[in-house]
Amino acid sequence: MDKETKELFNATIGELDRMQDKIERRFDKIEDTLEIMHNEINTCKLERESVSILIKKIDQLEKRIEDLEKRIA
Question: pLDDT for 1-54, tens place per residue?
Fold first, then answer.
């Protein structure tokens, strides 16, 4: 290879390395974002389950109160 071809080849390889680094950083950022979203989703699921349990408990307590009110009346 002549000098000019080597320089062009080296410049091309350098640019490919730079692009690969840039893409890897973007993938890392995307992975971080996905992990955060995954954690948020899990938190929402747990909150939804907690709310569902609380609603059931409230319903049970309301039924008990109604039964007690009927006994008193």
Answer: 799 999 999 999 999 999 999 999 999 999 999 999 999 999 999 999 999 999
User: CA-to-CA distance for 39 and 47, rounded, in angstroms?
Assistant: 12
Three-state secondary-structure class, residue 6: helix
| Contacts (Cβ under 8 Å, ≥6 apart) of 30 | none
- Single pTM value for the model: 0.64
For the chain, what is the domain count? 1
Residue span of the structural domain in which 34 resides: 1-73
DSSP string, 33-66: HHHHHHHHHHHHHHHHHHHHHHHHHHHHHHHHHH
